[in-house]
Structure formats: C-alpha cells, structure tokens
Write a structure and sequence with these properties.
Blueprint: E1 5-13, H1 22-43, H2 49-61, E2 82-88, E3 93-100, H3 106-116, E4 121-123, H4 124-133, H5 141-144, H6 147-156, E5 176-182, E6 188-194, E7 215-218, E8 222-228, H7 230-235, H8 238-249, H9 253-268, E9 272-278, E10 283-284, E11 291-298, E12 303-308
Parallel strand pairs: 3-4
Antiparallel strand pairs: 1-5, 1-11, 2-3, 2-6, 5-6, 7-8, 8-9, 9-10, 11-12
Helix pairs in contact: 1-2, 2-3, 8-9
Length: 309
Amino acid sequence: MENFSLAIHGGAGTILKSAMTDRKERRYHRALEASLKAGEKILSKGGSALDAVEAAVISMENSELFNAGKGSVFTHEGDHEMDASIMNGADRNAGAVAGVRRVKNPISLCREIMENCEHVFLIGEGAEHFAETRKLEMESKDYFSTDFRYEQLQKIRDTHQTLLDHSDHELKKFGTVGAVAKDVHGNLAAATSTGGITNKRYMRVGDTSIIGAGTYAENDICAVSSTGWGEYYIRAVAAYDVAAMMKYGDKSLDEAAHQLIHEVIPKMGGDGGLIAVDSNGKITMPFNTQGMYRGFVQSDGNSRTLIFK
C-alpha cells in the first residue's frame, strides 16, 4: 500500500504573533487539527483523496474562524456570496460554484456538480436551484452572519475600499480555505472555498472557483489549492502554472511552487500562498506574507499545524 498525504490552509496574510492572543491562537490550531483529522480519518482507511479534501474543507467551512461557509464575510449589500471548487486528479473532472448565498457547504455543491451535472461551473441562483435538487443542506442568512464579520463591514461600508480579510488588530488576511491530498491508491485531489472579500460589489468572483487559478489536480503531477489576492492568481493561472512548470519544465514541486509564490505573483504586484502535494506524497506550503494558517498529516504519522513563518 502506498503512502498518503494531506495538507490544508485557512488563509494567508499579515498574521503577526505579537497581535495574536494565546486563546485565539489555540482556537485556530484546534480548528486546523479538526480539519486534518477529518481528512486523515478517510485516508488512513484507504479512502479517496477526493473524499478527504471535501471532508477537510467542510470542517473549515463549518467554523466561524475562517472566511468560508459559516464564517464568510459580508458584501457591500450586507449579503454573503460564497465561491468554491473541487478537482479530481484521476480524470481531471471538476466542479465549481460562485456567488451562492444559502448553501451550507459550497464545497459539497461543487462535488455534486462534478459528479451529477453535465456542467463544471454554476453560479448564483442557478447553482442554488441545483443544490436543492440534490437535497443539499441550505441555511438562512442568519447562519452565515457573525458579529465579527459585520463589524468588519461597518468599518469600510461607506467607502469604495474592499478588504480581503481583517482582524481586530487591522491585520490583512486572505480569506480562503483549501485542502490537497494524495491517497494510498496514488490519486490526487484539491478543493478550495471562500466567502470572498469584505465590502465587495458587483458580484465579484476571485480565483477560488476558477479551475486552474485557485484549484488544480492532475495525477502523476500535483494537486494545488491557492490563497491570495484572487485577481493576480487568475491572471497567473496560478494553480495550473505550478503543474505546468513540473509537467513541461521538469521542475520539482518545491521549485515550481517557490517560483510562483516568490517570483511570479510578487512581480505582478500580488501576494499570498498555496499548498500542494505531488504524486510521491511530498507536500509544500510556500507563502510570501507574514503568516498562513496551515497544516499537514502523512501516513508516517508526521503531522503539524502552523500559523507563522
């Protein structure tokens, strides 16, 4: 039996140890550990990478600590617009959604689209109608509305400014969650989910829901989930660019990911990070910000959650 690997992220940004209370830091570590355990439970029993990344992301979508699902930020209009995508490396099948407001777990809707719809990408009311036909759990606006996120909106609602994410200490954080995995059968998968950016208008869509930008998986190459300023990751076709550098440029996973995060994206003016796993189960988690909520677990028992550099 082959090895398995799972990596997760909960967003990158200006996350400073000096501005993080011990209690809040412990809460983040517990939430990351819960996500890892949800995926590891599947992988350790010979389950699929696809099931593992979905379970890991659901765990973070259900936590108000992360800007995805329950913890999603507010739009300018005071609503929530969530984006997500999932990709199976075995056949490069994929599912994606953008601008959904009532689906409890957007990543599960992506899975349903991938497996039970002739399309790849659904948006808004159409995506929610499909979710209802698949009997997915729906929630009211109140479920996604937390005081912390509402206060973020009030600080800038009367401006044209948007915020990727914030904390009480005015620290910028890219609000995305994601997971990548390799299972014991050698299959790869990736999943990414987000609540977008605070005070966004015009139903803006970032890289999270775009296959090849925020999410990509291809067996024998790698699986990637990105977190950063979405406009730059879209323009760089970021997740696929890592795979392309490995596939056509003979770069290692570390080399390709490092080049994207520390050269390509900064040169364009953006920042952020990513997580990725290759066909051998090797994990990389580069970022060019002060910190990134992240963690990993492997079949040899090696496991860790991290926040700062």
